[in-house]
## 1
Amino acid sequence: MREIFIHLFKNSLDHGIESPHCRRSKGKSVTGEIFIKLRPSEENLVIEVWDDGQGLNIEKIRRKMNPSSAALTSKDLAHAIFQSGFLTKNQVNHVSGRGIGMDAVRNSLESHGASIHIKLRPEDYGCDQFTVFSFVIAIPRGYFVIQQD
């Protein structure tokens, strides 16, 4: 699980949180934030991860998809980032590089009986064609122990 969360944090740093200059121009604090919310359910530990960055460029994703993507919803397009080989950046860098993609994150979680999906949060911070979102991970109770007070 450690590698999965490292990957999610790197994605926030590289794809989500804007430069200090850009954040200042949007009226945001120059320091970006990454949030984690944990909540147990009857069957799972639900972990939600998000940042206060720009979000997903839904229209850019639509353009990268095939011509039939015109009928896809924003939520469908957001989940395209889990497709094997799907890239939103054209250059390799030292933060997220070109190693493991979001498809590997999903496959790793699913191999342990867990799941990941995207929850769109258009009411938060998003602007222009960007939609803010969070990753929602559900890990089966068999992988952890919740201590109740």
## 2
Amino acid sequence: MPPSSPKKQPPFKAAGANDPRPEVRRMFSEISARYDLMNRLMTFDRDRNWKREVIRRARLQSGHRLLDVGTGTGGIAFEAQKSCREVTITAVDFTRPMLEIGRARDRKNTISWCQADALRLPFEDAAFDAVTSGYLIRNVPDPLRAFEEQMRVLKPGGRVVCLDTSPPPPGPLAPFVRFYLRRVIPFLGEIIAGNRSAYTYLPETTQAFFEPARLAALMREAGFERVSYRQFMFHTITVHTGERPLTR
């Protein structure tokens, strides 16, 4: 079996009575058609630049294998496709409608699309040269396990790059940022995506998520070294980078 070929997986099921994934999966399915448009509006069209930063930090080279976890409609995977033609890309998400949109846009037909759980990745150990994710970690019930799975499928010396939101830090702009998160984004979600509740939930996860230093510590706990991060958009967006040790 090629190292990036998915194993046969059982259907998704809740891990327990309090497992939020079925509800979250349903929410992302409902907003999939307007997901990219909303991202552009919410970020003032800056989200594509952040995804390019993810690929830059992944340091892809010809012949590399990239795994993009929580790919959604494939934004990061498409940036990788444009940046390096000789990279083998596998895009994983647990929401089928998101994957269907991404696959329909893959006119080059060079990305492998796979429905799978970020906490149980269906790939062999040390199969990929880089693992990326965008807005994934704050939506999984066990972030440490998600990073441990990414560590498992990453080759020694490979890089993991995580793009996610961060809670707004204290400062003179904090009230304006909180107003934008609590009022403006839900309003846009209702008008553009027809789903106010989803775009109330997403800003709430931002405000409740780990601060960047805490997320970096979690990555180190998962075993990554040389962990660093860079912040954008008034410190509400952070790109974390780490490496799997050569000896692990």
## 3
Amino acid sequence: MYIKIYFNDKPLFLCDQPTAEIRAYAHHDDAVFIDEFSPPAVNSIIHEMRQAKVHAGIFVHTPLETLKKAFWKKFILIQAGGGLVRNEKGEILFIFRRGKWDLPKGKLDEGETLEQCAVREVAEETGLRDIHLDGPLLVTWHTYDESGKHFLKETHWFSMTTRGDQSLTPQAEEQITELKWVGASGLDDIMKETFPSIVDVVKAAGK
């Protein structure tokens, strides 16, 4: 079992036992590996993940929940919901924002469930109104810094479908400049211009 946390485009794996995917990263010279748990070790791997020379990080500890709690204490947790939306042709709806292809998502409002948040954000960012929530896909995590504070964003992704020929309206105030339905033949190009966490979401959906 593991948790994958992105520092920009670099993955940090918190795990109780390395999987084949994680072991592939461990063989690189620019990967950081820690298997002795302590508060200074948690601080150390966070510091290392922010270094340009580091490609990936691996922290092994059992139980994993203990490591997770120690890591979470270093950040302000922000929860969000997002959707991978398919139309009747099986195409996926992507948004273009700040030079990258992305999927619609946003922060959880007070009093909302994660499901409600995901549907609301998809509607606001794309203009879709007929949205059917099919079920959960996966959870992604990434870190970012803002105003001198360190945040960990936990995004809950859901599979969604929509029917009919609905008009699309990119949400300009969120700097979304383009919306595009993408079929299987166009996914490879999109995956080259998106975030690693979005690649994980698409893979989880089985394309």
